[in-house]
Design goal:
heterodimer; A: Ubiquitin-like (UB roll); Alpha-Beta Plaits; 14 helices; B: Ubiquitin-like (UB roll); de novo design (two linked rop proteins); 3 domains
Chain lengths: ~575, ~450
């Protein structure tokens, strides 16, 4: 196998590789700005310079020249090489800044150049704290600057589009953003204007940067030049906790981080998963963070004589159980949900079975033509595939709609969905029907007809599994706290947030902004017990999922351990098939 | 031969030299006049003569020792041999007529007075390298010459010299004129290709070299416009005979674009290796206003200036100029007289480079602007002595492979040479500055570090 030697350590490699990526893969850090593995290599930041040599070959015989000790004599290229462009070759010898003073000095010199016209407004810059320029300047940069002139002034606060704001002075012209729109999103909306120190990215005159993936440029910008119009100046990076999870805006199941401060989700950023969303996240997945904070329910309530009254959990469980017990099982409709987790839907299926009603159905939320064959799908729910695999089929909307209108049901049990706004029926159609509703937001239009309303935890507050359109099972973790004590959630909070206990600025343990809601996997067993059926999962969703994967072939292998951070692909088998 | 007792220069008896690139023929730019004087005969000979295989043209160019006239002076024949064997990919020749080096104005004379010679050269090169498309990338500011060349190209098309099945030989070649948009950097070959492809003129890193992956990713050769005009001459005379003209290391005729403080500036055609003193005093009629000379910039602003007292015995070829740390560049010398303020001169040169850097690579983008700022400060009498060493240190941090293309090397070359060779002038301005500092601050390597002022 061909070998390459970096700083005296010899590595084997396979195939064609670029030196910089190879070093990064080996955990050898090399400073760089413009290089991004998903895009073409411009080699323009000139930060990743290294010294490269090859064994010297005798010109006539072509054999490697060896020194007295039999070691090959190394002939170094006279000039330093940008490692991002260097193709690995067998026998190559590389000196990084760790072993070569020349390289170390060149990297320092380059950072001095980079900083000459950079505003150094880190104290007010959104990027500070996770800024490649800031971090690498501290590590490799000069101690001071010899630049004694006025820095160049360029446009600031430029609204490139509805979601991205540019501060051109901070730009170091790495061209990552322009390459993103050219090569990845292919909208070609950004270009570099002007020459030399005056250049910066911009849209064509009159053009708006409204690319549905525009906010990815914010993530890949190695400085604070591109900032989120929505998030800028809202929070510092060190005030927030981040939790690895997935987005639920559509059926892609894009991997993301939820950034939370004081139990409020402030932004959503992509998390690398080469099997799902690679490095990217569509804008529509990011801008939904408000639904986790706003219009959240004050707590459970019960409707009596057309008046909704605030209640407590015990009462609402009892009410739901008594509704189930008093209704004719054949006149109960269970609605599962493509918004809810596999675990919640599974428990609902069990409850329906215990009651003796028909198996639950789910409401599809598909907008034909909304998808783009990339990360945005027509299906606007995260777990339709999970429902299908559980044997939950979509409702026949026309038939069921007319049945509800014709008062053929006494009780509607709705799990985390909204049949009224989905158009299945109107609120008036439900006038003579009892409704048990697990819901997220007070904007839920079915809520006004709910006999028993149970606020449910959202994806950022729960633990559970979603199956994306490609049959990949991925689990989510709580990013923020809810009211009440739930050991499972507390354990997950403590072990899965990247900072484990929240930052000192993130008062997640405070009651403020904690929502009085519960995950459906906690509520359904309680209701089932009160109804009189035995449903008990003391270890919570992990135990539920373990049962699901061990009994249903469609979920085989989807344990929490196996899913980890990247999920597992599920076998394509008929729903309902036993293991 | 009247050599006035002087040692013979490589240019030999240049006084009796007969012009070949721009011969003194009225209306030579017209196709019929060009034809009367043997125009396109060389192409016909090569196309019709079965003995003349494409490889033979390349061999002749190799034997001639022709070097590129765009400034870098790379041997043209060797560059041509870099082209891979023809495969199913298209192949291109890029003709670099983006002449924008300050002080350089010789390509446009070829385009104006002998455009068909250049076109014939392009066709010969196309034949030699199995290329059927040539892009002539002309500097956007050369509006008149673009119109002019377009007209002449049209006539050549009509006469069947360019296009399908040229002269019934089965050889087909198209020549496309492409107007640049006014960027010096687009004269750099890889950036020229990017610009041709409709992209921003950012140089590409090499490898891959243009011969492997050039215009639209296809094998490409880029040659200077004047260089290609030499090719018909080589085919006519044979490589051997051509190589005996002028200096041995870069033979052939050359267009000397003389400018600056001389009595008769202009473009003159002589063999390479002209003695500098002959160029100034005999060709250009001496120094303007009969002042003494201070500096000689041999070929465009990016070639290092030579102090006047060092030019005796030097000739216009790289071997000779290399002895004093300079090079021929584009063969367009700029002569500066004793009244020139070298700080001011260098500031202007630095301004050009900071304005023209594409801004892609960090050291070049930031460095050129920093250099200009320091030079402006010294020029305005506010310089510090440590600025002089800082200038030199920044030069070291910018060139020698720190950037993708050779622009940074071109930008720091004159700065380094001028500061080193005319350091007294820089020091004098710094000392007279409003921030007087002791001269020994600038003594050692540490002097560029901010001192206690």
């Amino acid at each position: 196998m061909p070998i390459v030697t970096v700083d005296g350590t010899t590595y084997e490699y396979e195939g064609e590789q670029k030196l910089l990526q190879f070093c990064l893969n080996q955990g050898i850090e090399l400073p760089h700005f413009c290089y991004h593995p998903a895009m073409s290599i411009p080699a323009n930041c000139r930060q990743c310079l290294v010294k490269v040599g090859m064994p010297k070959e005798d010109r006539e015989s072509g054999e490697v020249v060896r020194d007295d000790e039999g070691e090959p004599e190394i002939q170094y290229f006279p000039q330093l090489q940008a490692s991002c462009t260097v193709d690995l070759r067998d026998g190559m010898v590389v000196k990084t800044h760790r072993t070569s003073e020349e390289v170390d000095q060149a990297q320092t010199d380059n950072l001095e150049f980079l900083l000459t016209n950079h505003p150094l407004d880190c104290p007010i810059c959104d990027q500070a704290g996770h800024c490649p320029l800031q971090i690498q300047s501290y590590k490799y940069g000069p101690e001071g600057s010899r630049f004694e002139f006025r820095k160049v002034h360029k446009p600031k606060r430029v609204k490139l589009g509805p979601r991205v704001t540019l501060d051109a002075e901070r730009c170091i012209n790495c061209t990552r953003c322009t390459r993103f729109t050219d090569e990845v999103s292919e909208s070609n909306q950004l270009t570099i204007a002007n020459r030399g120190v005056k250049n910066h990215p911009i849209t064509a005159p009159g053009e708006t940067f409204d690319d549905p993936y525009s906010m990815n440029t914010i993530d890949i910008c190695p400085v604070g030049a591109l900032t989120s119009a929505d998030f800028r100046f809202k929070a510092r990076i060190w005030e927030m906790s981040s939790t690895p999870s997935i987005t639920t805006t559509n059926a892609t199941g894009a991997n993301c981080h939820y950034w939370v401060r004081d139990n409020q989700v402030l932004r959503i950023t992509p998390r690398q998963n080469m099997d799902v969303n690679e490095y990217w996240l569509p804008d529509e997945d990011r801008l939904v963070y408000n639904k986790f904070n706003d219009n959240r329910p004050p707590g459970p309530h019960i409707r009596r004589d057309d008046a909704r009254t605030q209640s407590n959990w015990e009462q609402v469980y009892a009410r739901a159980a008594s509704l189930l017990g008093s209704a004719d099982p054949e006149r109960i409709l269970f609605l599962g949900s493509a918004y809810a987790t596999v675990e919640d839907n599974y428990l609902l299926t069990q409850l329906a079975e215990a009651v003796g009603a028909d198996a639950p159905r789910y409401l599809p939320h598909v907008e034909p033509g909304a998808g783009d064959d990339w990360l945005i799908t027509d299906d606007k729910t995260p777990n339709a595939a999970g429902c299908e695999r559980l044997g939950i089929r979509p409702v026949d909307e026309e038939l069921v709609g007319s049945q509800i209108k014709g008062d053929e049901y006494d009780l509607l049990y709705v799990l985390e969905d909204d049949p009224v706004s989905a158009g299945l029926c109107t609120a008036d159609d439900l006038a003579d029907t009892d409704v048990v509703l697990h819901y997220y937001n007070t904007t839920n239009e079915t809520l006004s007809r709910a006999t028993a309303a149970l606020p449910a935890a959202m994806v950022v507050e729960t633990v559970g599994t979603y199956v994306n359109q490609d049959g990949r099972a991925q689990r989510v973790r709580p990013a923020k706290e809810i009211q009440g004590v739930n050991r499972t959630l507390m354990m997950e909070m403590g072990t899965n947030r990247e900072d484990e206990h929240g930052t000192p600025f993130d008062r997640w343990h405070n009651d403020e902004n904690r929502i009085n809601c519960k995950p459906s996997w906690e509520m359904l067993p309680k209701i089932a017990q009160r109804y009189g059926t035995d449903m008990d999962y003391p270890k919570g969703p992990e135990q539920i999922m373990d049962e699901v994967q061990s009994t249903m072939a469609a979920f085989e292998g989807a344990t929490y351990d196996a899913m980890g951070l990247k999920g597992v692909p599920l076998e394509d088998v008929e729903a309902g098939e036993a293991v | 031969m009247d050599t006035n007792g002087m040692p013979q220069s490589p240019a030999g008896d240049w006084r009796s030299y007969e012009r070949m690139l721009l011969p003194p023929i009225q209306d030579l730019h017209e196709l019929n006049v060009y034809e009367e004087h043997g125009g396109y005969d060389r192409l016909r000979r090569v196309l019709e003569d079965d003995e003349f295989a494409p490889g033979d043209v390349t061999d002749a160019v190799k034997a001639s020792g022709l070097t590129g006239r765009g400034g870098a002076g790379f041997p043209t024949g060797i560059k041509w041999t870099f082209m891979p064997e023809p495969d199913d990919r298209p192949r291109f020749i890029g003709v670099n007529a983006d002449e924008s080096e300050p002080g350089t104005f010789k390509d446009r004379q070829v385009m104006e007075y002998n455009p068909h010679l250049m076109l014939e050269g392009i066709l010969l090169a196309g034949y030699a390298l199995h290329i059927d498309t040539a892009y002539v990338y002309i500097r956007g500011e050369y509006t008149d010459w673009i119109v002019h060349l377009k007209k002449q190209l049209q006539k050549a098309y009509e006469a069947g010299y360019v296009g399908e099945d040229i002269m019934g030989s089965g050889f087909t070649m198209d020549i496309v004129l492409h107007k640049g948009a006014g960027a010096y950097i687009c004269g750099e070959e890889t950036s020229l290709m990017e610009s041709l492809e409709g992209k921003r003129g950012y140089p590409r890193y090499k490898p891959p070299f243009p011969a492997q992956s050039g215009i639209f990713g296809s094998p490409t050769t880029i040659n200077n416009a004047e260089t290609l005009a030499h090719v018909p001459l080589i085919v006519e005379q044979g490589g051997e005979a051509y190589s005996n003209i002028g200096a041995g290391d870069m033979p052939g005729p050359a267009l000397y674009g003389m400018s600056g403080h001389v009595k008769k500036p202009g473009v003159y055609e002589f063999p390479t290796g002209m003695p500098l003193t002959d160029l100034i005093h005999d060709v250009c009629g001496g120094m303007a206003r009969d002042k003494a000379m201070k500096a000689f910039v041999p070929g465009g602003s990016s070639t290092p200036p030579i102090r006047a007292e060092n030019i005796d015995g030097l000739t216009m070829n790289d071997e000779s100029l290399g002895e004093v740390g300079s090079r021929t560049g584009t063969f367009c010398p700029l002569v500066l007289d004793e009244e020139t303020d070298m700080v001011s001169f260098l500031r202007r040169v630095a301004h050009f480079y900071q304005d023209e850097t594409c801004g892609q690579c960090t050291p070049c983008r930031e460095g050129t602007s920093w250099l200009e700022k320091i030079l402006a400060r010294i020029d305005e009498g506010e310089g510090r002595m440590r600025d002089i060493d800082l200038l030199l240190e920044l030069c070291d941090n910018m060139d020698g492979g720190r950037t993708i293309c050779a622009f940074a090397d071109g930008a720091v070359g004159p700065v380094r040479a001028t500061v080193k060779r005319f350091r007294d002038e820089f020091a004098a301005k710094c000392q007279a500055s409003v921030h007087p500092v002791s001269t020994d601050v600038s003594a050692g390597a540490e002097s560029a570090v901010a001192a206690t002022e």
